[in-house]
Amino acid sequence: MLGLAVVTLLLAGCSSSSSSSQAPAGSGSASTPSDTASAPPTDSTPVVGSPSFTSYSIPTASATPGEITVGPDGNLWFVENDGNKIGTVTPTGTVKEFAVPTASAGPSGITTGPDGNLWFTEGDGNKIGQITPAGVIKEFVLPTNCGGDGCTPDGITTGPDGNLWFTENDGDKIGQITTSGTIKEFSLPNCGSDGCSPASITTGPDKNLWFTEEDGNKIGQITTSGTIKDFAVPTAKSSPEGIITGPDGNLWFTEGAGNKIGQITPTGTIKEFAVSDANAALGDIVTGPDGNLWAAQGDGKIDEITPAGVVKAFPTPSSTSVVAGLTVGPDHNLWFTEDTADKVAKGVIGAGGATVAGTSSPEPSASPAASATTSAKPKATTG
Fold first, then answer.
1. Where residue 86 falls among pLDDT bands split at 50, 70, 90?
2. Sheet strands side by side (includes 54-57)
3. Residue 146: what are its φ and ψ, rounded to 5°?
4. Distance between CA atoms of residues 322 and 45, nearest Å
């Protein structure tokens, strides 16, 4: 059914970029930006009947920006998968870039750590990186190499124990790294011949870590001591992708191939809500400043979903570009990356703005509680 969403469209900003270089600190390798000017913001004109956003061009061509997060300095930080850089943008649109020391490292996930630095995964470098707000980078090699091709570290988050937790997509493992660089790995159970392929990871309301399994078609839970449970997603081959704790005390996740947004309680009961687009290719998901969930689509749209399960889709500035990373900034705006357009964009949500027609989903479908399987004691390694 069709519904209406109220969206406030307040946008501002101008774009410039700088890069420089400085010497590394400690034992880490460092890269720094050199000053260059970026293109002005583009696509800031509202489209009638749709939310309007402001986008900022990234100086590096074919950068393929991905995950994005809020840094300890109040700026937004994002990875450039093909540009092999870590980028930062101020709430007013000033962009800087820092080169990752390892060539073709393929930076993937990024989060703010408990030590006041940013931490990121190197999907092709088989490393975890740390970058200070000043741009000094250190890298930590994973203790295993998963058959020689690397374990493909992917999602990363800060855990309730003060450590960083990350997924190993090709390694079928969950990793833990301390802020001093000690790494442990925990093998996932019940992966089968296709593997589990863990992707996104977040801290749940129960103070455990929760993650998605793309090929395992499950939602996983791991305690800080390494005990693992998994819960099957009702829709077959749905390819769960992003996951986040919602405003209702449950976990919410996207189904990249299932065209649905899922909700799972801390005890494992799953509900699924269909989106309107047949090939949405859903990815990242975040809790918005309006108390709803917002999810990235691969077809140039962002979905809004209420805790009751009502879904609406809205086009983004570069409607043909994949919306890759998604977060809420310190300015309470939505911030996201557009990977094929090489841009970072923002938009304001709230009451009192234009009334926008959105495409709503069908009524939600509920599944019975998923069965949970508990793994044997996890394998731990240190590095």
1. very high
2. 54-57, 343-347, 334-338, 323-328
3. 55, 55
4. 20
